[in-house]
Amino acid sequence: MFSLSSTVQPQVTVPLSHLINAFHSPKSTSVSVSASVSQNQHRDLVLEHEAPSNEPVLNLRDLGLSELKIGQIDQLIDSLLPGFCKGKNISSHWRTSHVSAQSFFENKYGYIDVFSTLRSSCLYRQHSRTLKNICSDLQYWPVFIQSRGFKTLKSRTRRLQSTSERLAETQHITPSFMKGFLLRDRGSDVETLDKLMKTKNIPEAHQDAFKTGFAEGFLKAQALTQKTNDSLRRTRLILFVLLLFGIYGLLKNPFLSVRFRTTTGLDSAVDPVQMKNVTFEHVKGVEEAKQELQEVVEFLKNPQKFTVLGGKLPKGILLVGPPGTGKTLLARAVAGEADVPFYYASGSEFDEMFVGVGASRIRNLFREAKANAPCVIFIDELDSVGGKRIESPMHPYSRQTINQLLAEMDGFKPNEGVIIIGATNFPEALDNALIRPGRFDMQVTVPRPDVKGRTEILKWYLNKIKFDQSVDPEIIARGTVGFSGAELENLVNQAALKAAVDGKEMVTMKELEFSKDKILMGPERRSVEIDNKNKTITAYHESGHAIIAYYTKDAMPINKATIMPRGPTLGHVSLLPENDRWNETRAQLLAQMDVSMGGRVAEELIFGTDHITTGASSDFDNATKIAKRMVTKFGMSEKLGVMTYNDTGKLSPETQSAIEQEIRILLRDSYERAKHILKTHAKEHKNLAEALLTYETLDAKEIQIVLEGKKLELR
Ligand SMILES: Nc1ncnc2c1ncn2[C@@H]1O[C@H](COP(=O)(O)OP(=O)(O)OP(=O)(O)O)[C@@H](O)[C@H]1O
Ligand SMILES: [Zn+2]
After folding, report:
1. What are the AAA+ ATPase domain coordinates in residue numbering (predicted)?
2. Model pLDDT for residues 135-154, shown as the tens digit of each residue
3. Pairing with 145, which of 175, 338, 527, 681 sits 20 to 30 Å away (CA)?
4. Is the CB of 327 within 6 Å of ligand 1?
């Protein structure tokens, strides 16, 4: 082993079996013999040998010479090969003369480089066996780079040239990290070198320099390889650590891995939903809509029948109506009645931020549908795909989706068997191109159900739960004006839940009323602590309303009175119209005003003018609205006549004050009527208030019992 210390990495070690041959093949002459050159010129080229004391211990164990130092080997050689070292003046040849010793090593350290000598050809020829024996035991043959010998300037230049040529060549062709690998196998290089020297006819005198250059190149490459290996090892280590961290992170946080699973849904498959089990039977309270859709069902059942007669059915049907009125249900029922596939798509699904995704989904949908005709395509929330708003700069590509929809609708003939049903809450928002003939040209209105429809819907959903025979769906229907089918379904469901929570076996009117109030006014505020004084005021106030309603001919029948706080109210009286009211008479409007006044009148009569409360403000709001409409809209004021006054702000001051005066008179008269009734029925009023204080809530029947002076059974 041998360490080089200057230009190359000190730790570079060179296993040299190859190099030995290259340097010192038997035919090469002693490399130490050369022309002399000035000391300065070669000094900078010197790769310094280590001091003799640091010389590596050579493995000559088998020869019993394991601890032998180089100096001692010298002596050994002397004894083995007598006369070989004779005449060698160790001291200072090169200092006194330009004719130096045989090698630079010898010059510098003052003794012979035994190995170079051993390898010199004449010696080798003479004592080949002995040398072979020694050499075979040397696992590492030290490299004594022979540039230390005396070189001519010319040879040095050539050597440098050849080295730089080789390096440049490598650098050009290969990336730096590859050099180490490419230069690793020197065996072939040795052959090439020998061949090269032969073919190029390099004179023997120069061959040495040539080889030295090669050796330097080789060593540099070795250093490079070492460096590359080190950095590769470092990189591998860093990568490995990063990998470990990554795996740890994934194990710790599985969400990371899930995140990558989200799909764009570019080619989401379209599956039809068979709606065999949904028929028109399931849709209640929308008879007109069902009738209109009946012919579509006939067409889907037998498209040929229509083609033969030349009849032309619309391609698209638009179901228009408020949310929850059963539009989706109707569309499903159409498919179910005709027993054809039903394709459901929601407009918002097409509203994608990626260009063209919406359009491609539309294409997929129609391709599937056409392949399975006859069938129904249902597009819910059509306004979100076909609305005018999408022309805004905020949705620059949404136009593509609507255009695709239009193209698809134009792309098949009316009698091909595909019916597109769209649903929307805002028909006004739809793009005009969508509603022109040939597209969604048939419009079916699905309104909120009337009292009859509500009763039907309630019965339908009540039949799915256990309910008491005393339950009258019509009463609930009357009290749920404006409820949609979905809301009624929810009402029944909430009542069933309430009954379950209260541990009842079946749903009674109480639960149904409870859930109705909850939907209408928000949940009860049972936790609210109301002191007795306020409770009493509320009880008299609500009873006042109830008494007026009960004793006024044209007032709506009472449904319920309660002093249970709910939402923002402390109590309320609910009245039920016998039927949905399409028109109201003057007497009915006045009666409504009187009922509204009943609360404040009761407070005044019972507690005195000084103790009236703010609780009547919404009552006055109601009464004032009715009075105002009677005067300005319904032509019910004698003084102002049958004229409407829409924009009261633009009216003359006289007219304005006349209107105000009329309204005030109506309200005052109403107040007086209410006062009269409550004074007349003071006893009933008191009874009812006390009953409310006891029972909190009274239904129509109970109110009647109290007002008839009978005793309420304890509940
Ligand atoms: N007329 C009805 N008869 C029976 N059930 C109804 C009726 N209307 C609504 N429902 C119930 O309410 C649910 C919701 O109704 P549906 O989804 O059909 O309303 P929609 O008009 O399509 O509402 P949206 O406009 O919000 O899409 C239905 O699944 C059904 O259970
Ligand atoms: Zn009131």
Report:
1. 313-450
2. 555 444 443 333 333 433 44
3. 175
4. yes
CB-ligand 1 contact for 331 (6 Å cutoff): no
Q: Which fold has domain 451-520?
A: Helicase, Ruva Protein; domain 3 (1.10.8)
Write down the catalytic residue from 337, 542, 684, 702.
542
Looking at the chain, the domain(s) classified CATH 1.10.8.60 span 451-520
DSSP state letter for 611: G
Residue 375 or 414, more confident? 375
More confident residue, 324 or 261: 324
Q: Verify cis geometry, omega within 30 degrees of 0, for the bond prior to 557.
A: no
Q: Which CATH superfamily is domain 273-445 in?
A: P-loop containing nucleotide triphosphate hydrolases (3.40.50.300)
| Residue 211: band (very low, low, confident or very high) from pLDDT cuts 50, 70, 90 | confident
Burial 638-654 (b: 16+ CB within 10 A, else e): eebeeeebeeeeeeeee
Query: Given pLDDT bands bounded at 50, 70 and 90, which one contains residue 619?
Result: very high
542 is catalytic: yes
Classify burial at 379, counting beta carbons within 10 Å of its beta carbon; exposed 0-12, middle 13-18, buried 19 or more: buried
CA of 617 from ligand 2 middle (Å) equals 8
What is the C-alpha separation between 653 and 324, in angstroms, rounded?
47
532-707 CATH choice from 1.10.620.20, 3.30.930.10, 1.10.10.10, 1.20.58.760: 1.20.58.760
pLDDT of 67 higher than 70? no
Task: Tell me what the mean pLDDT of segment 679-691 comes to.
Answer: 94
Q: Can you tell me the ipTM of this complex?
A: 0.94
pTM: 0.52
Spatial distance between the Cα atoms of 619 and 624, rounded to a whole number of angstroms: 9
Q: Is the pLDDT of residue 537 over 90?
A: yes
